[in-house]
Write a structure and sequence with these properties.
Two copies of one chain form a homodimer. By secondary structure, chain A is α+β, with helices and mostly antiparallel strands. Chain A contains five helices and ten strands; from the N terminus they run βαββαβββαβββααβ. In chain A, α1 crosses α2 and α3 packs antiparallel against α4. At the A-B interface, β4 of A face β4 of B. Chains A, B: Keywords: Isomerase, tRNA processing.
């Protein structure tokens, strides 16, 4: 048995998320279909670093699977890519340790979120940015970002739908935002992320950028541990799973 | 009767081209559907500066239509955009002269073509760039571009499917290419363009960039007036109707 680790990217626009579902086009579904063809009908289960929701993109998602099929690593890459649709691609194939697990061995994940801060619509950005027409105070947002860095209980910033069990404490190594022209880039690097956490944080940061909230509110929001204190989750299409780091 | 001129953009990915066709999703079809709703069921015919093929994008296409409906110009913009799908947008609405015609009054058109010059696939570029993996000599391509500028008979560089009647002489005010990172941008500004002309020229320029042809071949190619001398038309998804200029 060989354990294969792959770095993949996908345009989330036409996927009903990562996880396999009946009668839906999903990333897992397309990958397992390609692997089943390579394995002459045998079902090969893949394991991602984590799921992504409908419309969320990935520049550097990681998956693993096990196989008895013998192929040089470069041939694996070509064999899988030949069978994948245009919106899903394998960038790197490596042989992993027997003990490796794409989900449990993650030490750091990086997400980016992109806002197109213009009043005029850009048809080419609709699936790749969140268009936000209002003026934003970058200084205020940056001050709020700094308060989110470090180890905190992120209950206030996670979906109420998330499971109750498990710690909500996560360590954020980087929370930042910067503007280039009309594009605002948010970068999040952390030990792990709760369900919808990035999209809820970006929503709160946009409130702060508009002056609806004070940057210093972050400290109290973290302390109160109550999702209802915050507004809307921003849309999926601005979110990218950028990179996953392992030991 | 008021004549309305609109500047529009569209992401060509999910349109079967511009021109209306039964049971196909087209730019004209979606625009006329929106106008019919505004005009309470009355059919309003729109006229573009020219058609675009399936998969071709527009940053600045121009259309006109006639109406007896009275609306302030800003309300026109909002009224139409409210009824349009996400991949089609009206940027500007103006009142035009009675004599104006979006097709016959064009004095200059500008097209851009984008090549992604990388071996590795980028899933986010598949509908917006032509991915071309081979090394290109920019100097050679730029010399060939210079030879295409000015007034020429472009028979060699137009689709054999184009109608036989009509002059094939066009005036190119600018033909240029430049590289920024892995992106190669081709810019064409001219008095008008023959069917498939930009895509055939880019194909020839890529041959020259690979050393399959000499930049100086352009002169003989123009002189020979024979489409069969050239290779493939490059794919639609790299092509953008960038701007249309009127008197």
């Amino acid at each position: 048995m060989t354990k294969i680790k792959c770095t993949i990217s996908y345009d989330g626009t036409n996927f009903s998320g990562f996880q396999i579902q009946p009668r839906q086009r999903t990333v897992q579904g397309e990958l397992e279909k390609a692997l089943r063809r390579i394995h002459k009908g045998e079902h090969i289960r893949i394991h991602p670093s984590g799921r992504t929701d409908t419309g969320v993109h990935a520049k550097g998602q990681t998956i693993h699977f096990e196989t008895t099929y013998q192929l040089p690593l470069n041939n694996w890459k070509m064999a899988i890519n030949t069978l994948l649709p245009g919106d899903l691609y394998v960038h790197e194939v490596e042989e992993a340790d027997d003990a490796f697990h794409a989900r449990y061995d993650v030490v750091e994940k990086e997400y980016h979120y992109y806002v197109w801060n213009e009043r005029e619509k850009d048809v080419f950005k609709q699936h790749y940015y969140y268009q936000f027409p209002y003026q934003l105070n970058m200084d205020a947002m940056q001050r709020a970002c700094a308060l989110l860095e470090g180890e905190h209980d992120f209950t206030t910033f996670s979906s109420a739908k998330a499971s109750i069990k498990g710690s909500k404490i996560r360590n954020m190594y980087e929370v930042s935002c910067s503007r280039e022209g009309s594009t605002i880039e948010f970068v999040f690097r952390g030990s792990g992320f709760l369900y919808n956490m990035v999209r809820i944080i970006v929503g709160a940061l946009l409130d702060i950028g508009q002056g609806k909230r004070n940057p210093d509110d972050i400290e109290e929001l973290l302390m109160r541990k109550d999702r209802r204190l915050l507004g809307d989750t921003v849309p999926a299409q601005g979110l990218y799973l950028w990179n996953v780091t392992y030991k």
